[in-house]
Design brief:
alpha/beta, single chain, 330 residues, globular, 5-stranded mixed beta sheet, 4-stranded mixed beta sheet, binds acetyl coenzyme *A
Length: 330
């Protein structure tokens, strides 16, 4: 038994915040942000939008594409670091919103690696015969965690959610996954919980980042994990059709492309429009490629997530959906 993706979906907040708008509130500029990060805009929650609402909308879109009844889902895994409830898990709220009343629900907290970790977990449940139809979501509202007065970090982040439906099948479909954590560097990306009994000072609950340490970590670990998962799959980087990397920032992605020695067109990017919204970036990129007709059956995809923990992971997928035609970009 293995799991295949039969639907993808995403949901981005309505409000777009440009670099220009940020520069009206802090000492930064569009040129600085674009040159260092490749980011132009980010989408930020407003009004009734929350991590949960984005997650439920993304899951609903994936479910519609899959053409399944939400009541047939037996598992909801939501990767997030920004649940709007401490108890219950955000995935429980998603269950209610999408009407998946027979699904077991839990959240996975692995920051920007969260979606890759959750997809590997869903596959493990399916392979063990413990689930048949799962929705796997990556959703974050990092705008709730950042210090909007810290120009060295807040400019990097945004909000959004993506999801896939994974169905068990008897077909022999290759899937490989690798996960790693090195907590000795946990301090490089840290936000204390706001729910501790001894309340931390407010500024300790903001996301703090050692940008240079994260940059070094990403450049070392991402190529490594890609080679590791490809070794399991028995193929090389040249055999891969598309690499979907966590959209942390444009310079990290460019540097990984150079290290891997792959053509840049095999490494799609949307960080310019959405910035870094942690667990959501990979499934949103996947959904956009799918809906734009860029994916076709048999293509080999490698996903790679990396971030707080420090944690990093990769997965190898052979795409099983037919190309979506008649999309806006064909
Ligand atoms: N606007 C203008 N100037 C700024 C800004 C800003 N937004 N932020 C920092 N600066 C200034 C600094 O104060 C410093 O000024 P100084 O030289 O007078 O002291 C100068 O710019 C250079 O600062 P550095 O921190 O050295 O800039 P660097 O070139 O390292 O770029 C950056 C910073 C973009 C954060 C980079 O380190 C980076 O990309 N790191 C990776 C971090 C990342 O992507 N994290 C994502 C979260 S983790 C994840 O998803 C994996």
């Amino acid at each position: 038994m293995t799991g295949k993706i039969i639907g993808t979906g995403s949901c981005m907040p309505v409000r777009v915040v440009s670099n220009q708008e940020l520069s009206e509130h802090m000492d930064t500029s569009d040129a600085w942000i674009r040159e260092r990060t490749g980011i132009r805009n980010r989408h930020i929650i407003s009004g009734e939008e929350t991590t949960t609402s984005l997650a439920a909308e993304a899951a609903g879109n994936a479910i519609s594409m899959a053409g399944i009844d939400p009541e047939d889902l037996d598992l909801i895994l939501l990767a997030t670091s920004s649940s709007n409830t401490h108890v219950p898990a955000a995935s429980c709220c998603v269950q209610q919103l999408i009407g998946a009343k027979h699904a077991a629900c839990f959240d996975i907290s692995a920051a920007c690696s969260g979606f890759v970790f959750a997809l590997i977990t869903a596959q493990a449940y399916i392979r063990a015969g413990m689930a048949k139809l799962a929705v796997v979501i990556g959703a974050d509202a990092i705008s709730n965690l950042v210090d909007w007065e810290d120009r060295s970090s807040c400019i990097l982040f945004g909000d959004g959610a993506g999801a896939v439906v994974v169905q068990a099948t008897e077909e022999d479909i290759p899937f490989y996954g690798v996960m790693h954590t090195d907590s000795t560097k946990a301090g490089a990306l840290l936000a204390k919980s706001r729910h501790q009994r001894i309340q931390p000072a407010m500024e300790e609950t903001y996301l703090r980042m050692d940008g240079k340490e994260i940059f070094k970590f990403a450049l070392t670990r991402v190529p490594q994990v890609i080679h590791e998962v490809l070794e399991q799959a028995g193929c090389g980087v040249e055999d891969v059709d598309l690499f979907l990397l966590h959209q942390a920032n444009g310079r990290i992605i460019e540097s990984v492309v150079k290290k891997l020695k792959v053509p840049p067109w095999k490494v799609p990017v949307n960080v310019d429009e959405y910035a870094n919204f942690s667990a959501g970036t990979i499934p949103v990129l996947l959904d956009q490629l799918n809906r734009r007709g860029k994916l076709k059956r048999g293509q080999r995809l490698v996903l790679a997530g990396f971030g707080a923990g420090l944690a990093w992971g990769g997965s190898y997928i052979e795409w099983q959906m037919d190309r979506i035609t008649g999309s806006e970009e064909g």
